[in-house]
Specification:
This protein has 525 residues and is mainly α. The chain is built from 24 helices and 6 strands. The protein has helices at 24-38, 49-61, 67-75, 81-91, 93-107, 115-119, 121-133, 138-147, 154-158, 164-176, 195-202, 286-294, 302-315, 335-347, 352-360, 391-401, 415-422, 436-444, 446-452, 459-465, 470-481, 488-499, 504-516, 519-522, and strands spanning 208-213, 220-225, 231-233, 247-249, 387-388, 523-524. It has a two-stranded antiparallel ribbon with strand order 1-2. A two-stranded antiparallel sheet has the order 3-4. Helix 2 (49-61) packs parallel to helix 4 and helix 13 packs across helix 14. The radius of gyration is 26 Å and the shape is globular. The model is unreliable at 1-19 and 406-413 (pLDDT under 50).
Length: 525
């Protein structure tokens, strides 16, 4: 029987940053210390090696380190071993896959409104993973995404088929860090954006057309663009009357100038493709102009939005929080640091891997979970954040912990089960509530039991076939699943449970079940 009650509960107009002057990780720590001193906060101590190893491995690769990696790291006395580990994780194949999972959720979420986008999602994730494998600069792959002229990125627009307003909202939120949806029906009540700002951005998407080829599973999509068509603006939603016609709104870059666009000839007639034909490329492409502006140095939003998002990914919350809501009132907790991150990314030509390396090498990232606050996402970053594992991370960590995914390169099967029970990511505000279905799935689900049950080469088999004393075997089990040795009371309880059981097989599986169902395993911290 399972050990039912046993459980392990256990970050304008400011000084610019020049990369040559000081490593960004040092800037991070200097700004953190200044804020703690100002706020009279005592930060947590440095995390121990076990906690750091588990945290950074999940954050950078989406899975756990092996027993061999864990024991070697814990035994290593090199003072630079953490930096070396980070470099190793950043160069492995799992880093690109993990980032693809993260950005897939940013750009699609769990439930895209268009089923066609879901069907082509694997191709989109493969394209994303290649961007991180090749370390393509962020501004470049954003331009390629918005151009959608190569296989993969077109899925982003497919989810907004015949919904240019939704495309405008998503692009502004994700890439510009700005929420403009409130300006759809009326001028924004709490910010500078007007309805004409909203429809000016929407004008870049109103001419886009999702084109199809093939049928069934072989069906493919491409993004065409008409040469004519405008957004019609008819005023505040409360002032609408039946039959009221709107006035065309010219495309306008968010917070900037209107698009300089040649007039459409009066005798122009939009072509109507037949059969397998597609729309010809327009002589003047609004989509091209938008992609060029979003990824250009003239765009004041792109760099600051992405550094804030990446900071939140690894530190729990944005320097501006929520991460995609930059407003006059919603200011940064550490404005000088936000500026330094932004300037640093621009200086390093939008190299996200460089940015991630600097953040996770900082002392601030490597603080212990155990500190002065009970907040899961500390406002002043005075201790480590606590976050639930995503569905993909749970699936991978479960495989790694039970040695089902021995070589560390193949994804664990059964994705749909994990998406169903762990598929709702947190909302970026720190809110999380484990569901009853999740609890039942991990506690009683036959699928999880398949990982735990003894099979040749899995963790249960390794423990049971070992000839070492049971105390040593429990050390190995804990180091494999939780990346730390057991505490004396834990070791004693587990050994006692196994040695007093009629059959050790079931008792060992009970012990694995306990660890996999613990809060310590469910969260990254």
């Amino acid at each position: 029987m399972p050990l039912g009650r046993y459980s392990l509960f256990i970050i304008f107009a400011l000084p610019s940053f020049t990369a040559a002057e000081e490593p960004l990780r040092s800037v991070v720590d200097r700004e953190m210390r200044a804020a703690w001193q100002r706020e009279k906060i005592t930060p947590a101590a440095r995390s121990d090696d076990s906690a750091f190893l588990r945290r950074v491995s999940i954050d950078l690769t989406g899975t756990l380190p092996t027993y061999e990696v864990t024991t070697a790291f814990l035994a290593d006395s090199d003072p630079k071993k953490r930096e070396k580990l980070i470099d190793h994780l950043l160069t492995g194949p799992r880093f690109a896959r993990q980032q693809a999972d993260v950005w897939d959720q940013v750009l699609f979420g769990r439930h895209p409104g268009n089923a066609d986008a879901v069907r082509k999602r694997d191709g989109f994730k493969a394209w994303l993973a290649k961007q991180f494998t090749d370390n393509v600069p962020y501004d470049q792959w954003v331009r390629e995404l918005l151009l959608a002229e190569k296989p993969g990125p077109e899925s982003f627009y497919v989810q907004f088929r015949n919904q240019p307003e939704e495309a405008s909202i998503a692009v502004s939120r994700v890439f510009l860090g700005t929420q403009i949806h409130c300006a759809k029906c009326h001028d924004h009540p709490f910010d500078v954006w007007t309805q004409k700002d909203f429809y000016g951005m929407t004008g870049f998407f109103v001419r886009l057309v999702v084109q199809e080829s093939g049928s069934g599973n072989a069906r493919t999509f491409s993004i065409g663009e008409k040469s004519s068509g405008e957004v019609l603006f008819s005023g505040n939603a409360k002032e609408q009357t039946p039959g009221k016609k709107g006035e065309p709104v010219r495309p306008r870059f968010l917070g900037g100038a209107e698009l300089d666009e040649p007039p459409t000839p009066k005798d122009f007639k939009e072509p109507t493709p037949t059969g397998k034909e597609k729309l010809p490329k327009p002589k003047f492409s609004r989509k091209e102009k938008l992609a060029a502006w979003v990824g250009s140095a003239e765009n004041p939003y792109l760099a600051r939005a992405v550094v804030n998002r990446v900071w939140a990914q690894f530190m729990g919350r944005g320097l501006v929080h929520p991460i995609d809501d930059f407003t006059r009132e919603n200011t940064a907790s550490h404005p000088e640091l936000l500026q330094a991150l932004t300037d640093g990314l621009i200086t390093h030509k939008f190299d996200l891997k460089w940015l991630i390396r600097e953040i996770v090498n900082s002392d601030a990232y490597q603080l212990s979970l155990h500190g002065p606050t009970k907040e899961a996402l500390p406002v002043w970053f005075e201790q480590a954040r606590v976050r639930p594992l995503s569905a993909e991370e749970m699936m991978n960590c479960l495989g790694s912990a039970t040695l089902t995914d021995i070589d560390g390169t193949q994804p664990v099967t059964g994705d749909h089960y994990f998406i169903r029970y762990f598929g709702e990511p947190t909302n970026g505000l720190g809110d999380f509530q484990g569901s009853l279905s999740e609890h039942l799935f991990t506690n009683n689900g036959e699928y999880v039991r398949r990982f735990i049950s003894r099979k040749k080469g899995n963790v249960a088999d390794v423990v049971l076939t070992s000839t070492e004393p049971w105390e040593k075997r429990m050390d190995r089990l804990f180091l494999t699943v939780l990346q730390r040795p057991p505490k004396p009371r834990e070791r004693e309880a587990f050994v006692n449970h196994i040695t007093t059981a009629a059959k050790p097989d079931g008792a060992v599986e009970d012990c694995i079940w306990v660890l996999l169902n613990s809060s310590e395993f469910r969260f990254n911290h």
